[in-house]
UniProtKB/TrEMBL annotation:
Descriptive protein name: Signaling protein
GO biological process, one term: cell adhesion involved in single-species biofilm formation
Entry GO terms, CC: plasma membrane
MF terms (GO), sorted A to Z: diguanylate cyclase activity
All copies of domain HAMP, residue ranges: 318-371
Amino acid sequence: MKLKHSILGLLLLFTLIPLGIFGIFSIYETNRKIDELTEQNVRAISENQVMNIKNFTQDRNNEMDMIASYQLTQNAILYSLRENESPLARNYVDNLLKERKKYSIFVASISVVNRNFHVVSSSEEYESGTVSAMKDVDPKYQTGEFIIGDVYERITDDGRKNVVPAYTGVYYNNELIGYVMEELDTAYFDDLRLNMDTLADGTFYLLDGNGAIITAGDTKNKRSLKTFVSKSSDRNDFQKKWDAIDHEKNPSGYVRYRYHRQDYITYYSDVENTGWGIRVTENLSAQKQTGRTYGVLIALGLSALIIGVFCTQYFMTKKIFAPITHILQVFAQIRESEDYSLRVHIQEKHETGELAAGINELLDYVEQADRKEKERQQKLLQMAENDPLTGIKNKKAIEKEMLSMVQRAVESHEQITFGFVDIDDFRDYNTNYGHQEGDAVIQFVAQTLKENIHGAVGRIGGDEFAFCYAGELEPERIRHNADKILEILRTQHVNEQTGEVLPVPCSIGIVMSQGDTLDYTQLIRKADLAMYQAKENGKNTFVLNVD
């Protein structure tokens, strides 16, 4: 019996030691891979939020640049500086800013000031000549470059709000003549934080250049935290490692540290065009709870039958390591292909399945954000190329299209047709019927040209249009089409207020040229001359020149 017991003891000893080593190794690998997945998750959240805020700042930059580029804005500033002889009613610019604010719910106010910091116009009530507080801000905000400042609290027309200011310059003949300023409601950034449903036991901080909190908390904190979760005296390990980083050389990265005997990781990043910083913190020890659970299972297996150990090993390999490997493979595929439609196909009902579901939710969010970003870029492209009143190409876009068309036609020896259209006596519509009818006439002409000209059509000025077409066309067909357009313009525009048919006579100049004889500047000049010749011929007609 003693020998049997000894043999049994030796068998158990030599079986349990390698199994124990295996169990320890399994726990280590599980914790390591969970750490790796958690770090990737937090990194993805941090990078995604940086991208969201970067897109937001770029949107604000584009919007403010658009306001700064308006002739109306520049004239208002020049008039306030007495550098423009033509007075301009302030309420035009005020109404423009109020409309902009109305469609940007996170904008608390929009203002325009001149270079002497006198308020020129605002979406809020103000007194003429008021000196803006911008006069006393840090000079780095007064360079004219787009920048977003630090958070502060102010009573706005919509009540007390925490806001951050954004500044950009207004230029006239390359001279800084004033600024466009926005105050952005920090509630927008609270919404960003609340939509980060992939944070497990973590906290998101968005800090301004002074380290003040813009928004902080997790998805359960409906209101932003006002202070850090922990006291500075409790964050010695974090602070020591944070201070050791050269933040100028490393504007983004991560810090691993311990706090109250728990392991944490914080990803950080600076935000362009601001002094802000993003921090996403996750409790790694909380994520390791799954690994500790499996450690208990392995310990119970080691104290039971050997077969239980092998069953546990088989279970861990199939249910844990294989899914984790699959998850890592999916991450690798996404990293290589940038295809955010890929998903983790794990249907398990335990923690690995929940982890897979959480990752898939993150991928859903990233895919949606990526799609929205592409749609936003497409809309920005359309806004940059289209005339806002008519929807056809603007001056810059049609000129670019015409030049490109000439270059292609030269290479392929194609025929090209250029045309200019000018509404005859357009000022009479504004004088007799008001500017609203003038806009309606411009829209009618643009739509008529777009529907009846096989080529590119654009608006190059107030009542002037251009069109171009590359390809063989008979002059007779061009004449027929021009007659048709003039007939439509004369007979089919109806004044919506009076119901009467208002003729819209136009003068059209057209030039046709062929292949290697093309010269862009000459074509533009000839088409322009043809249009003026049409006016000299009595208006409401066209002149076609064929080279």
